[in-house]
Amino acid sequence: MAIVGRPNVGKSLLFNQLIEQKKAVVDDVPGLTRDRNYGTSEWRGYTFRVIDTGGYELREKDPVKTHIREQVEIAIEQADVVLFVVDGRLPLTELDYQIADRLRRSGKTVIVVVNKCDNEKHDEEAVDYFDLGLSPLFPVSALHRRGLTEVLDEVVDEYHLEKVSEADEKYIKVAVCGRQNVGKSTFVNYVVGENRVIASERPGTTRDSIDTPVRIEGEDYMLIDTAGIRRQARIKDRLEKLAVVSALFSIHKADVIIVMLDATREIVSQDLRIAGMVEKAGKSLVLAVNKWDLVEDKEVRARELRKQIQEELYFWESAPVILLSALKGKNCYKLFRKVKEVYSHFIRQIPTPELNNTLHKIIERRPPTSFRGHIFKFYYATQVRVAPPAFELFVNNREWVHPSYQRYLKKSLRKYFGFEGVPIRLYFRGKRGK
Description:
The protein is α/β, with parallel strands linked by helices and 434 residues long. The protein has three domains: 2-165, 3-Layer(aba) Sandwich (Rossmann fold), CATH 3.40.50; 171-346, P-loop containing nucleotide triphosphate hydrolases (Rossmann fold, 3-Layer(aba) Sandwich), CATH 3.40.50; 352-433, GMP Synthetase, Chain A, domain 3 (2-Layer Sandwich), CATH 3.30.300.20. Helix content is 35%, strand content 21%. It has helices spanning 11-19, 63-78, 94-106, 120-125, 148-158, 184-192, 238-253, 269-281, 298-312, 332-346, 352-365, 403-417, and strands at residues 2-4, 37-43, 46-52, 81-87, 109-115, 137-139, 172-177, 210-216, 219-225, 256-262, 284-290, 321-323, 378-385, 390-395, 425-429. It has a six-stranded mixed β-sheet, sandwiched between helices. The protein has a six-stranded mixed β-sheet with strand order 8-9-7-10-11-12, with helices on both faces. A three-stranded mixed β-sheet has the order 13-14-15, with helices on one face. α11 crosses α12 (403-417). It is elongated, with a radius of gyration of 25 Å. Mean pLDDT is 82; it is low at 23-33, 164-168, 196-209, 228-235 and 238-243.
């Protein structure tokens, strides 16, 4: 189901309400949504995909608006049902009539959604929009969720949707993050096999976080392309701030984060910040070094990168590193094989006997030194959570576990159980709450 209409009629707000998430960036400024944005809506036991689109302007020649128009056209082609959104508080425009004509010629089922109808008076005025020559027509207020149930009932009752099982919606959720202009959208477009998102050398082209289901080598992924993240203090444009918030939200909802670096540029503080956000959010990580095709002395650059990652990204020393070229498609699928492997570690449950046997070996190999005159004793442990793996260790006093020894335990657990690219959480519980 695609949501289509001219700029600033409330398409993204309607999209957010239908999927019950604040996923698309919403603002009163026209032209905010640029790419197709996918979400899932559930109604009366049925599940269906919803596609948000940018403002549809058929005759504009501006390059960005031309890209937006192409994205809208693809969304119309993909959809079985099109929600044509118009502004119920304004008279119909020539552009509304042009879009209506385009949708009639598409052969798709079209539902006219007259948005911003906040009361019964607006409902009565909505009949004017039958002039578009399309039906059915529903007055709604996306802001107040008014009239949305009627639209969803129409979709479910009239258009022969099939119930989708939960298994059909199981994806490994992968967010592609990084600072601006490192090639994230080019990577997504290559993997998906189409111009799924706008790719441009102009920084800041991507604003929304875009979800794209894709099947790679037999595995289902939900691929999330995000806006380039810059330091908040340096973001003056309010819309760009909203895009950064959306990118950070994508990190929190994903399973595996691909942090993309630029092989032609040094690792900078913003790269560290992004990797730190991933660690803080408790997500697994794969480092992708893009634009490798532009590197002349690859052997020297590879050594430099390894040294930089060890020194600068020390808290992610376990993260796998893939050298790739999104433009040429080099190693893109190798990257996904590593993503799949890291995800298997992310959700791994260690049997309690195996965990305890391993921890006893780890501690015997390097017994703890005294901490402020005290030596902690380990009794047993259990895994309390996956994604990320978290372990509760029962000791004599949790205050006596030196931070350096905690790091040793994490590193050793990673070595024994292969938690490559996965954060490990350790919680210590002492006797009588100590």
